Amino acid sequence: MKIFSWNVNGIRAVLKKGVFQPFLDSYRPDIVCLQETKAERGQFEIDLPDYREYWNSAVKKGYSGTAIFSKQEPLSVINGFPEEFAARFAFADELQRDAAEDNDSTRADSSSPTMPRSTPSQPSRRRSASRV
Fold this sequence. Notes:
Number of domains: 1
Helix content: 10-25%
Radius of gyration: 14 Å
CATH superfamily: Endonuclease/exonuclease/phosphatase
CATH architecture: 4-Layer Sandwich
Number of strands: 5
Order of helices and strands: EHHEEEHE
Mean pLDDT: 76
Number of helices: 3
Strand content: 15-25%
């Protein structure tokens, strides 16, 4: 299974540059995790019939945000941090996105990427986490 993580620093810029589709065509990842999308689903047209899309946009428009594109349907999707996880850490999240229960219900719609690290890293305290 191929899993890629990519801090796109704005999905609209990546789409405008025309590098997203060639990346998908070249590497054919099973799962693509995007950070810093800085957009909400529906602000642009993206056609990925082989992937399911899961977006977790920031409350403040044009800020932060994540998206996951997966060829397989996940067992579950949680937007934000699960409450039991959020309770264990003191988040410095100015947008108050520290618990999945605080977010709307799950939305499921049908620079350069990097491979995931082999060692776990500490979770970011400024972004929402999406899990596939």
